[in-house]
User: What shape does this take?
Amino acid sequence: MDPIIILQAGIASGTVLLFATIGEIFTERSGILNLGLEGMMLIGAMSAYKTALATGNPWLGMLVAMLAAGLLSQVHAIITIQFQADQVVSGLALTFLGTGLSMVFGEGLSKAGAVALLPSFSIPGLVSIPFVGPIMFENQSVMVYLGYLLVPLAWYYINRTRPGLHLRAIGEYPAAADALGINVNRLRYFYVLVGGMLAGVAGATISLAVFPGWFSHLTTSGQGWIAIGLVIFAQWDPIRAAGGSYAFGALRRMILDIQGPLKIFGLRNPFYYNPYWGFFLQMLPYAFTIVVLVIGSREAIRKRMGAPAALGLPYIRGERGL
Amino acid sequence: MTTKPSLFAQYRSGARFRLRMEPRLEQPGWLGLIVSLGAVTFALVLGGIVLMLVGGDPIRAYAFMAKAAFGGIGVFSDTLVKATPLILVSLAAVVAFRMRLWNIGAEGQFYLGAFGASLVVLTPLLPPETSPWLMIPAMMVMGMLAGALWGFIPGYLKAKYNVNEIISTLMMNYIAVAWNNYFIFDVWSEGGFQMSRQFPKTAWLPRLTDYAAQVPMFRGLTIHLGFVIALIAAGVVWWIMYRSRWGYEIRLIGDNPRAARYAGINIVRNTILVMMLSGALAGLGGMLEISGVVHRLQGAISSGYGFTGIIIAWLAKLNPILVVPISILFGGLLLAGREIQPSGIPMLIQGIILVCLIGSDFLFRNRIRLVQIGQEA
Assistant: This one.
């Protein structure tokens, strides 16, 4: 129960949630709700692992994961943008589709053995910062560092650039954006693709870096859904998303570690003496997601902010929207 | 008499066309059926292509599945056994979806229903020699209560704090599985195995094969009373949705929440009640499964029924009566799918069916016409 180790591992495991959550933020900011995150992450994890196994090159695996999950996301884009179908049901369908596809093409992969993983390294200089250094910069996966870069970039892109302004416009008031000459539906296709590719990165980060391997549909164990909950908690803001993701990662690691010691805070550790109490620990990330949702929703009401106004609504030119 | 030149002739003479979609003014009922059937057929073809890609023989696989699910009275009885929990979780989805409440927690409510029913037998709330006439109804009530509780929590959070019910119900699924696991591994574990002891016979739903001594042809038929209960549940849900005032309120909220609010319908109360009804139906499904089939509490009592129920509900266009035949078809798919390798195939086919189904809905609402460019008006 070393807090440094828990936070260090928590950041690594939270990186998975981070990529998925920020990807979904892009998609939802454009007005499309994609609940298929779990399916896209599974496709990403499976195809990354399979490619790395076949070629020995984890970066190629990462690329294939982005392409595969991006391709899957376009199924959702076509159904919801072109065919104007219900985004909730389509997202669910995408989860089934991604889970089924990854299970079929990942058959036998769980016994495949070792695979070349993405590199881990320490950042010289930064690593010697007290407390923060060992947690954030010591022997972390390259994906963790890419995650650090993604957060400010995503925030800057959404809030301070012209394409980011267009992104927010098509999610808040697509008719006005259309009137300004922005091609609403084309941009929505693009941001669904961005979300899909980042979900692929999240999946590949699991299977090639954080929890290496392919464990069929248990590989993601609901993290896609937790990420969707985090988007709401984060109020569609990448920086808050990072906080939430790392906190959840640390929680997941703490649950693993808490069953080890004989005593906690000088008291008999019930989780050590009855390992089955661990099932209650297993509930925690899911229970916490609900708590986090309650906090996020109450705050949204209090501050009168909330989801992008056009989230979940198809844009049909000339029809009265909103 | 002048006839319109054929499209091809027009094309030859230099006319150019493009596809244009326009909303259908009439949406005849038979068209919905054809579009749905077409979508399912298309999905099976796509599934077959994937099967070929991974080195299978789709025609043989489908023929095998059809035979394994419907090729005889014995297997058909097994199919109906599989269909029983599916009918109930699909009804759970129908009730909630009709109000546009996305309860995708039927899986967890199903597990909790099994847990609630087990409480009666394993605590035990009733001694094992209790008459089945009391035991079975008590298990049904407890199963429905436990499922309703599991629906109440996300319903309350939705109604009071506007918490997204999709995510909360899904999270409740994981919690339910861990909850059941704790009782299977620890409290009710039988000799260290990950299952409870077997229920006494008084807690078993009667099966046809139990009457083989009187009627020899019933030998080996595993279909149990739960199927009849599921049919009754479908009838009751239909009555609630289309013949009761409550159902009218549910449908009105689903179609137009704003109008419903102006009409004085209590949306908060209905949100909670509908989630509880939905949970109770799924919970009943869990109770029927352990009382009719497994006869004990154990892990993995559901192979994703809660999610299959969503597809069935959508395929049935949220019609409680149509849920029954479609559940039987999917029961066959699940039954036969157990023997199909790779194991993800049934899940994949379900996913493709749902994708094609919601995609095809567009064809139902719109029609696509070939129009000559320049003469579109």
Observations:
- The radius of gyration of chain A is 20 Å.
- Residues 3-29 of chain A form the longest helix (27 residues).
